[in-house]
Amino acid sequence: MFKKDNFIYGCILGLFAPIVGLLLLKYYKFGRLSLKEVLQFIYTQPGHGILTAGLSVSLMMNAFFFTMYVNARRDQTGKGLFVTTVLYGVIILLIKYLS
User: Fold this and answer.
1) Own/partner pairs for 15-19, CB < 8 Å, 24+ apart?
2) SS3 (DSSP) at 71
3) What share of the chain is helix, strand, coil (3-state, %, to 5)?
4) pTM of the full predicted structure?
5) In whole angstroms, what is the distance from residue 58 CA to residue 14 CA?
6) 88 and 22 in contact (C-beta within 8 Å)?
7) What is the DSSP letter of 26?
8) What does the buried/exposed string (b/e) look like for 51-90 if buried means 16 or more CB atoms within 10 Å of the residue's CB?
9) Per residue in 2-50, pLDDT tens?
10) What is the rounded CA–CA span in Å between residue 76 and residue 53?
């Protein structure tokens, strides 16, 4: 897994790693609730504060993978991870300030 050096692979990994991070946050913070109940709560909450906070924390998974790939000199994969992290960040900012 850490031997690949491909921009597209980095983008794909960067798209799915925050989802895993968000699921980990769900089980840590909302362990007893179902995923459907958590998503309903997050969606109906005024200001989407938990949504933006959860997405921001889930981006730590991208930071972890980015660090691993850059330290292993897999720069193309690191670039893909960086691009998707920036895109997620922009989306989070738009959700936060436009809602």
Assistant:
1) 15/84, 17/58, 17/61, 17/62, 17/64, 17/65, 17/81, 18/55, 18/58, 18/59, 18/61, 18/62, 18/88, 19/58
2) helix
3) 85, 0, 15
4) 0.78
5) 11
6) no
7) H
8) bbebbbbbbebbeebbeebeeeebeebbbbbbebbeebee
9) 677 899 999 999 999 888 877 887 888 888 888 888 878 877 777 667 7
10) 29
Tokens, residue 1 = 């897994």
pLDDT score of 11: 93
Q: At 54, list the tokens.
A: 């959860």
For residues 14 and 62, the answer to whether their CB atoms sit within 8 Å is: yes
Q: Residue 22 is encoded by which pair of tokens?
A: 């968000």
Tokens 């991870």 map to which residue?
81
Whole-Å CA distances, 50 to 4, 35, 56, 83: 34, 14, 10, 24
Rounded Cα distance, 88 and 79, in Å: 14
